Amino acid sequence: MDYFRNIVLLAAIVGAIAGIGMTVAQQVTTVPLILKAEVFEQAGEAKAPPAHVHESEAAAATEHEHGGWAPQDGFERTAFSVAANIITGIGFALLLIAASELAGGILNWRQGVFWGLAAFAVFTLAPGLGLPPELPAMPAAELGARQVWWVATAFSTAGGIALLVYGQSALAAIAGVALLVAPHFIGAPQPLSNDSPIPETLHHSFVVAVVLTTLAFFVLLGGLTGYFRRRLVGTA
User: Could you read off the pLDDT of 47-79 as tens digits, one per residue?
Assistant: First the structure.
């Protein structure tokens, strides 16, 4: 019982630290880009055809009356970001720790960094090749289809990496490569139109910022897991 309790405690500590670190990185990198994109989004809405003005105003009023709330810019928005990132960090920490414990556990921070890199490949790099991060006002395919492809890609990538690392035969290696390639051979759902008020350079900068911040997040998550595991879980 103590073993599982310590696993949960480990995930909570590691996830909280990584989540706070992620928030600091986002405030410097991605948040300014999102704010710039919102300016383009508002400018695009202001240029909407006059015939639809009353309809859009009615829709906006309805949205405001039925759950269109959003945190205010400044402290409130940052506080909600911190909370969301901590919860996300704990969730990813639980996934990382559960997978690594099945493989014998992370023995030190160096092993943790490699596990973090693997998690980055599974949850960010591979899905991002087909569905890159999006800014406000950017076109996107239907949400359900994107979610299915994202989850399938993450599972396929995780399985492919596991076969390449732990497989003991050439057949396992071939199957691993096939799993890594399959989602991208099928292709991610794409929007009907790519028209967007967001400049391409702004979107490119955002994608780079997201990739770098999530890379730092997962490396920190894995390294901290290896560092604290020996102190909380030991060699159980």
Answer: 555 544 444 343 443 444 444 556 666 677 788
| pLDDT in the model for residue 228 | 93
Task: Give me the amino acid identity at 111.
Answer: Q
Q: Convert the pLDDT of each residue in 156-215 to its tens digit.
A: 999 999 999 998 899 999 999 999 999 999 999 998 888 888 889 999 999 999 999 999
CB atoms under 10 Å from CB of 69, counted, come to 8
Cα(46)–Cα(49) distance, rounded to whole angstroms? Answer: 9
Torsion 107-113-114-117 (CA) sign: positive
Domain range spanning residue 113?
A: 2-138+196-232
Q: What is the DSSP code string of 69-88?
A: --PPTTHHHHHHHHHHHHHH
Instruction: Tabulate helix, strand, coil % of the chain (nearest 5).
Output: 80, 0, 20
Q: Specify the number of domains making up the chain.
A: 1
Q: Name 140's Cβ contacts closer than 8 Å, sequence gap at least 6.
A: 134, 146, 191
H/E segment holding residue 40: helix 30-46
Within 13 Å of residue 222, how many CA atoms lie on the same side as its CB? Answer: 20
Residue 56 lies in a domain: yes
Inside any domain, residue 158: no
The pTM for the full model equals 0.84
**Looking at the domain assignment, is residue 36 inside a domain?**
yes
CA angle (135 as vertex; 130, 139 as ends), nearest 5: 65
The pair of three-digit structure tokens given for residue 10, joined into one six-digit string: 């480990």
Q: Is 103 exposed, middle or buried (0-12, 13-18, 19+ CB in 10 A)?
A: exposed
Q: Is 181 within the bounds of a domain? A: no
